[in-house]
Write a structure and sequence with these properties.
6 helices; alpha+beta; elongated; 8 strands; single chain; 155 residues
């Protein structure tokens, strides 16, 4: 599922409307005049939509991409970051469930290595934020053993 802001949704909807009229791509100035956005803001939105593979933005023209994606609209960029963090948190929790031993333990360094360099490829900041969030929710507990630091998967 792709998360977009309300402004991105407005622009995407307008591209869908103009798509038949401009088979070679809708010029930015047509979109700008119709939507009333400042050109700089509009170009940023178009680039975001392209990064999300919803449109093709090339030579100051926008057209729909060929791929069909499920879209979720939220109010702001902050909401998108929060939603994506929640998704990463769920993915991280699922990964931890796969990695723990029969006593629900995992070495701190093993876990951090998998979160940083595994499929999720989290940044240091996001990894620590997710671990802290899981601890605050009571799903993960940091413990000290004689042979090092571990996390205990609770529940």
């Amino acid at each position: 599922m792709i998360n977009i802001t309300k402004n991105e949704e407005v622009v995407l909807d307008q591209i869908k409307i103009f798509n038949m009229e401009y088979p070679n791509g809708i010029p930015v100035n047509v979109l700008r005049k119709d939507l009333g956005f400042h050109e700089y803001d509009l170009v940023q939105i178009l680039e975001e939509l392209q990064d999300k593979d919803l449109i093709v933005f090339k030579d100051n023209k926008a057209s729909l991409s060929e791929s069909e994606k499920e879209i979720n609209t939220v109010n702001s960029r902050k909401d998108i970051e929060e939603l994506e963090l929640n998704m990463k948190e769920k993915e991280s929790y699922k990964l931890i469930q796969e990695l723990v031993d029969d006593k629900n333990l995992i070495s701190k360094y093993t876990l951090e290595g998998h979160l940083l360099y595994g499929d999720l490829k989290l940044t240091n900041f996001r990894m620590y934020h997710i671990i802290l969030s899981l601890q605050n929710k009571g799903l993960l507990k940091s413990i000290e053993k004689d042979d090092g630091e571990y996390y205990l998967l609770v529940g």
